[in-house]
Amino acid sequence: MMIQPSNIKEAARSLLASKQRTILALIGIVIGIGSVIAMVSVGRIVQEESLRQFKEMGTDILTIEKEFGGSPGMPGAQAKSGLKLETIRDIPGGCPAISSVAPSVRGSGNVSFNGKKLDRAGPMGVTASFLEINKLSVRQGRFLSDLDEQSRFCVIGSRVAAELQKNGSSQLLGSKIRIGDNLFTVIGVTNEVPEGGMRRFEPNETIYIHITTGLRVFANAEISSITARVAPGTTNNSARDQVMSYFASLGKGPQVKITSPEEIIAQMEKQMQMFTLLLGAIGSISLIVGGVGVMNVMLVSVTERRREIGIRRALGAKRGDIRGQFLIESVILSLIGGAFGIVFGIGASWLIAHFAKWQFVLSISALLLGVGVSNAVGIFFGYYPARQASLLDPIVALKSD
Q: Residue 32: phi, psi to the nearest 5?
């Protein structure tokens, strides 16, 4: 059946005749399509935000970690020989593709200030190059230097600084922090940085001390992770090969695992795609509810318009004409709901991004999805009522009250 302007006018008239049911069906469609679009858009925004944070540190970063023997978590799994500080410092000399390295060692033990425990503060031993490689900056004072070897100085993250001020520190620089049995003097405060990215630690909640001090005062201290920056004009693959060759040349030295940003980003994209798919599937539940509402409105409309259908059939209308007319009504209902649903979905995703302080990204695929889904809902959930209307016997329909 060709769609004529008269068919559209008739469909609009029929929908307006039952305003209450039409509005209820529209609400269901708006919420359903809006939920799908919002879920898909939020998934895309989270993916873009994660990638942006990764790229902020640069893609010229390699993470070098010590390999462990056996399967992690299995009985008998033992660490291979540890990474020595001298060996790590010699990496740029033995690997021209590496411009600088920043080893680190995690600390443990109670952290306190003025006798009060700091729960969200983790000590870490680092080198002077750690600041630049991890794209950190100092808000107050200075960062650790090579002259601070074996010293009792520390630099604190923004949240640790806030905890100190909350516990009575009026002057951050010069404050004393106790880590285990050792007292450290604060010489600097780093600026707040967004969570996530390539960093495998929380910069805002870290207390930085010199790595030589950390290896001496931390219990069971051992360097197990190194961040290395690739020299300009060198590919990550060639840098990786040089580092592997360097550690292999040490004979019975430590075995390492090297991870590049490309590998992490590829893994993240796969995970985020599954995450977005899951969100879309959850939103589809409300979409099904909205579609059932459309079907309900159309079935009631068929029941109320039995006499009208009988008259049309008696005047020569074919079953395809009747079926097409009801399908047009269903599609119009879904398209109107879809239009409002797109606005609702984009608005909801913008609000989520705004309050989460993420960069809002308008997903064109989500808009196309909204248009396609609204059409699909109208046809899928409108076909059965339209078919029921077309199968009515004209004589029986004319006898309806």
A: -65, -55
